[in-house]
Amino acid sequence: MNNNILIALLVVGVIGLLAGVLIAVMSRFFGVEEDQTVKAVRACLPGVNCGACGYKGCDDYAVAVAEGKAKPNLCVPGAESTAEELGALLGIEVEPPKDVVAFVHCNGNCEATATKTDYVGVTSCKAAAMLYGGPETCSYGCMGLGDCAAACPANAICMKDGIAHVDTSRCLGCGLCESICPKKVISMVPQETVVVVMCNSKDKGADARKACKNACIGCMKCVKTCPHEAITVTNNLAKIDYTKCVGCGACAASCPTGSLKQVFFPDLSEEYEDFKVEE
After folding, report:
1. CATH code matching the domain that covers 36-90, chosen among 3.10.270.10, 2.40.37.10, 3.30.70.2730, 1.10.15.40
2. With contact defined as beta carbons under 8 Å apart, do 209 and 217 qualify?
3. 111-162 pLDDT, tens digit each
4. Residue 113 β-bridge partners
5. Cβ distance 101 to 166 under 8 Å?
C-alpha cells in the first residue's frame, strides 16, 4: 500500500517536472517578447485608466504612444509632469496639455429646488433618472446621489445641500465624473476659467424658474452685456465660449438669477500633482 502511494507520488512529480520543462521551452521559443518602449511609456502613466486620452486605458495609450500613433501629451491626470517625462523618454519636445477641472453646472440646492416624488430605490443617479427623469422638480439638475463621487479616483467630489461639489484642488481632470453623469450636469472646463454657468436647464424661462430659483431663464442679458461675444443662448441656456472669454465678469454682474458666477480654480495641490494608482 505504501509502495503504491510512493509510486503515485513519484509519477505525479515526474509529470509535473516534465510539464514545467515543456512550459519553459515553449515560453523560450514561442513567447512574445514584450516591447520595452511600451513598458517604459506605461511606467510613466498614472494608471487611472480614465479614457480621457481617447483610448480604453493606460495600456492601450502606452502602445499608441510607443508606436507613434498618439501624442504623448494626452494624459490629463498626469498633466505636464507626465508629458515632460514621456518627451524625455522618447527624445522629443512635447507641448504641455491644457489643464482642465470638473465643474457641476447646477446650483439647484435644497433651498432653490424641491422634490416632486419620494424616490425609494438604489442610491444611484442613473437608477433614479430612469423614473420620470428623477425625483427633483428640475429634470435637468443634479440629483445628488453620488455616482460621480463613486467614480472619482481622487476623492474630489462630495454631496452637499443636495448637489455634487468638486474640490478642484484635488480634481485630476480625468473626466470620469462627466462620462458617468446621466444628466450631463458635469463638464470639464479650462483651469483658468473665471466665469461659469451654474445651470443645465433647457426649459423656457418661466418653467425653469418655477423648477429652480437659481435657474438660467435665457433672458439674453449676458449676451447683450458681453463685450467679446463670448456668450450665446441655445435651447434657453447660456453657454460660454472660453476661447473668447477674458473673464471681465460683466455677464455675471448682469445675470438677474445669479446663474452666471465668477469663480477661481486653484492649481492641483502638491499631494495630487504626482498622483498615481498603485498597481
Report:
1. 1.10.15.40
2. yes
3. 999 988 888 889 999 999 998 888 999 999 999 999 999 999 889 999 999 9
4. 212
5. yes
* Separation CA 15–CA 10 (nearest Å): 9
- Main-chain phi, psi angles of 262, to 5 degrees: -85, 140
The hierarchical CATH code for the domain 100-273 is 3.30.70.20
List phi, psi (to 5°) of 200: -130, 5
Q: Count Cα neighbours of 279 within 13 Å in the Cβ-side half-sphere.
A: 10
Q: Determine the Cα–Cα distance for residues 134 and 207; give it in Å rounded to an integer.
A: 17
Domain boundaries, given as residue ranges, for the chain: 36-90, 100-273
Does the pTM surpass 0.85? The reply is no
For the chain, give the mean pLDDT. 87
